[in-house]
Amino acid sequence: FEGPHRICEDHVGELQKHFTLITMKQFLENKTEFSQKIQAIYIWGGRPVIDLELLGSLPCLKVIASPGAGLDHLDLPLIASYGVRVAHTPHAVSTPTADLGMALLLASARRVVEGCQLAISPDTVHFPINWPGQEVSGATLGIIGMGTIGYKIAQRAKAFEMKILYHNRNRRRLEEEAAVGAVYCARLEDLLQHSDFVMLAASLTPQTQGLIGRRELQLMKPSAVLVNVGRGLLVEQDALVEALQTGVIKAAALDVTYPEPLPRDHPLLKLKNIIVTPHIGGATHQAREQIMRDLVESILAALHGFPVPNEVLLK
Ligand SMILES: O=C(O)C(=O)CO
Known about the structure:
Order of helices and strands: HHHEHEHEHHEHEHEHEHEHEEH
Bound molecules: 3-hydroxypyruvic acid
Distance between the termini: 27 Å
Helix content: 25-40%
Radius of gyration: 21 Å
Strand content: 5-15%
Shape: globular
Largest sheet: 7 strands, parallel
Number of strands: 10
Low-confidence stretches: none
Strand order of the largest sheet: 6-5-4-7-8-9-10
């Protein structure tokens, strides 16, 4: 793995119970010795980059363990061509990511971050009499990407009495739709035009990259809020900046951007109608522990030639 500076202490501890750990730095310093020994790679934050050179130098490599759900940092066909398996942990992060999606939605609707800044500012003398927040009950939430995370967001939104539309590659079963009161929009345009909140919970693929661009933003209501807990590249960021600056949409709340973090002088960070969090969708103690349990299980299974739990299979 990339090295202790990039990895939580508890991850190292849990991994050390089962495996001998070699950091990327140690590997690079002594390639000849370690290249014959490494059987698994643990990725954190997209590092180390798994490329031809690395794969070619590790003849004993059996599995790549990637915490979280997203796989956009991996060249899956390349990895498969080396006979190496990939395991991730989509279940461990789905609940906290759905929670964060709702947290961002509510924070944006009630302008929590702006309110907090005002409440703690040394310049504040009086609290505002009118604080123009928005209630989410009765509002329409459009969820783009109705996988496990999207569906959990729908369950939460139902509890907040929101109306739910969704757009997804595949339609969910009728019972699943009925359980959360979700209405399928085959056309993304329909969802965008009718939603008060648009939630991006899709994975990043060549098909979804830039899914929300200038045209899509213009289809949204001027009062609408865009929330993104998927990947930054789902949105054309320059178009989003322009839409937020010119009132094409009301606000955005983003857990993901590109790059991460944004350069400190990025125009998105200068806007008032934005909330940005540091990619913390899966960042809870519970998820961290579950991720490690899942990955240790997957790595051990791969090393012993057993079926690998949460294995990523090429479609
Ligand atoms: O699981 C993932 O891929 C995440 O990015 C969680 O935020």
